[in-house]
Design a protein that fits this description.
Radius of gyration: 24 Å
Number of helices: 15
Structural class: alpha+beta
Shape: globular
Largest sheet: 6 strands, antiparallel
Strand content: 5-15%
Strand order of the largest sheet: 1-8-2-3-4-7
Helix content: 40-55%
Number of domains: 3
Amino acid sequence: MSTSAKPSAPAPATVTDPLTEAVRAIDTTALDCIQVNAAVLAHATHGPHAHLELGGRLRFAPRFGEGRRLPTVEQTPAHQIAWMGGSLGLVLDARRPLTEGRALLDLLPEDGSPLYVVGDAWRMPWLPYHGHQHMDHSVLLRVADGGTRVEAVDAYDNETPYGRAEPVVCAYSRSQVAALFDGSSVLPVTVRSAPPAHRPVSETLAENARDADLLLAGDTPARYAAAFRDRPDQQEACMALLLETWLLNRSRRLHAAWAAHHAPGSTLAHTARDQAAAWDDLAGQCYLAARRVQRGRPVPPQIYTSLVELLRADARFAVQAAGTGPGETMPQEPAEVRRTVVETVADILGTAPEAVAATDDLSRLDGYASFQMVETVERLEDSYGVEFAPGDLEPAALRRVDGLVDLVLRTTAGAEVAHP
């Protein structure tokens, strides 16, 4: 059967299906095509926000190719799979690559749990890349209808040159699926649950800062930008740079979402958001440059300068976010701490910040009970890189925004290192 075989009507999504619920719940526009379906698995396994742990590390680690190859920040699927599992609370066990569709079908769990698969987007008819462009792409496959059919669950969301890719759940016959994956290399990855990741925010920020110190001490951003600027074939360079800035933009948006979740309203969250917005602007400029060079017009030279400046701004932000150093403190502004407290409680309850700010007694809010009080305390400790004294955790104070603000201000004022 041809690989262009069309799927049947999309499988009906039930409200109890954790995969389709996860696809709807996640902001998939901050994830690349390898991350996105692993993120769905994390959400389905550990609940909302679990996938955001992919965004904690603020990375810039380009691979400089030999010969005429341009550098790239894109990592191989095998490399991404190796580090994603620990962040997501999953055991991702990559098997040997296959080239036979029926061998892939034999790996599908009979209980309907998903198999994570990386294949060629050229062979996936639900994607606009189908029949147009070869590229690695992930999908979740699972048996349905008593094993007679197979569902493809793909949360990828992106505007492509061939049309829009949108999250889908498609059902195929087993023979169709075997035909779709026959003759191309497919990497199957079995999935098991592991304990969810609970890495302290301060540890992640410190690791980001160590990487950033090395970047600021060297010339990697300048070398990286120069490779594209000095490429004789500027059409090739601009198309490659468009992909690079797309990847960097998505990773910075994911980092901003991670920061907003762990430290809502904080300097960390606001600066991460501003950096992500700057990357969004640069990605737009690179798209414009690629279109101009395709029409024989010169490339706006400022995109290369902007690229270097933005990479170095990322690094300075990472150093600042990790604190000022042992023995020093970073005084907190009361208004900013109040905003952080309000947004933290609002995020935990899934309610509007205005409702939290207007409430004298948080226990009057629907859902704010002992469990939510504990989560608020833990989130604020993570946000500011401190540990509240047990004697300060009075229920009367923890039920009031003012009480929580005072707790943060007193604790950070006495801490050796306070994180924004």
